[in-house]
Amino acid sequence: MARKRKAGEIEALQAPVASTPASPEEMDWSPHYPNRPDHRVEFADIGCGFGGLLIALAPMYPETLMLGMEIRVQVTQYVTDRIAALRQQSIEAQVRFDAQENKFGANKPAELADGGYQNVSVVRANAMKFLPNFFVKDQLSKIFFLFPDPHFKARKHKARIISPTLLAEYAYVLRPGGIVYTVTDVEELHLWMVAHLEAFPAFERIPDEEATKDPVTPHILNATEEGKKVERNNGRKWIALFRRKDRPIREDS
């Protein structure tokens, strides 16, 4: 069973969002990634919730910057604090490692690389309205839509995170070969997302056999709080991965 949205969560959709840059060039990323001044964000988790996916992927891709975009104030603050705590724990663990284990030639764990979790951050933002304000054309290599709000009522379908208008924006910021990841516990929403992505000319579905071999797939299913909740309730999850097609010559002009 899909969970029902709380009233405060629905109200957050209408809340104003502070500090949205007028353009990607005006975004100051230094507070988010102080150790990566010359890198650009490549992974975006839209509606990242409590940050489970980001935390799971950070050690897997230590050189890749990842950003969670979340509209709820308290949830964004929770993720910010969680990342700060993990960074501090990693620094302390690295000190212990350097003082003890490293003298035996041990390999440094991935989560300690360059301080650990320096490649992940979160912003409070309405991605449905302001995604191009944060990212330039072809910037992202992965976009995640994990357990999005199903908006069950027909009159609310226009508020779903996957729509023809929004797909144009996702196609703009996603580089050719980049991947869109979707997962939900609502079959009707899964069919909706698949139908719209398949109908959009910039995307092609990745065969299920290939999708299951993607190293990220286990984490989109199980790393988030929503995914764990569905698992505890013995619910079913539907996933679909789509690849960004190469841009036609006229599109690059």
TrEMBL record:
<dbReference type="GO" id="GO:0000049">
    <property type="term" value="F:tRNA binding"/>
</dbReference>
<comment type="pathway">
    <text>tRNA modification; N(7)-methylguanine-tRNA biosynthesis.</text>
</comment>
<dbReference type="Pfam" id="PF02390">
    <property type="entry name" value="Methyltransf_4"/>
</dbReference>
<keyword id="KW-0820">tRNA-binding</keyword>
<protein>
    <recommendedName>
        <fullName>tRNA (guanine(46)-N(7))-methyltransferase</fullName>
        <ecNumber>2.1.1.33</ecNumber>
    </recommendedName>
</protein>
<dbReference type="GO" id="GO:0008176">
    <property type="term" value="F:tRNA (guanine(46)-N7)-methyltransferase activity"/>
</dbReference>
<dbReference type="InterPro" id="IPR029063">
    <property type="entry name" value="SAM-dependent_MTases_sf"/>
</dbReference>
<dbReference type="InterPro" id="IPR003358">
    <property type="entry name" value="tRNA_(Gua-N-7)_MeTrfase_Trmb"/>
</dbReference>
<dbReference type="GO" id="GO:0106143">
    <property type="term" value="C:tRNA (m7G46) methyltransferase complex"/>
</dbReference>
<dbReference type="InterPro" id="IPR025763">
    <property type="entry name" value="Trm8_euk"/>
</dbReference>
<dbReference type="GO" id="GO:0005634">
    <property type="term" value="C:nucleus"/>
</dbReference>
<keyword id="KW-0694">RNA-binding</keyword>
<keyword id="KW-0489">Methyltransferase</keyword>
<feature type="region of interest" description="Disordered">
    <location>
        <begin position="1"/>
        <end position="32"/>
    </location>
</feature>
<keyword id="KW-0949">S-adenosyl-L-methionine</keyword>
<keyword id="KW-0808">Transferase</keyword>
<keyword id="KW-0539">Nucleus</keyword>
<keyword id="KW-0819">tRNA processing</keyword>
